[in-house]
Design brief:
Blueprint lengths: L1 H10 L6 H18 L12 H9 L2
Helix pairs in contact: 1-2, 2-3
């Protein structure tokens, strides 16, 4: 959810396009796939570079 909120803060809620929404959800999904493989709570959040690395492997 933090990834979704971050995207909304960066682009603004009113100016999000369909492509922006698709990319936002793709990014959040990649982040959650990393998070679920780790133990813990707050310290498991991946860095942006790590999420992008997962997305470029697709």
């Amino acid at each position: 959810m933090a990834c979704v909120l971050n995207a909304v803060l960066e682009k603004g809620l009113d100016s999000l396009t369909e492509d922006d929404l698709h990319e936002m959800l793709r990014f959040a999904n990649a982040a959650s796939s990393i998070i679920t493989t780790r133990k813990g709570a707050l310290k498991v959040m991946p860095k942006r570079e790590e999420i992008i690395s997962v997305l470029t492997k697709e």
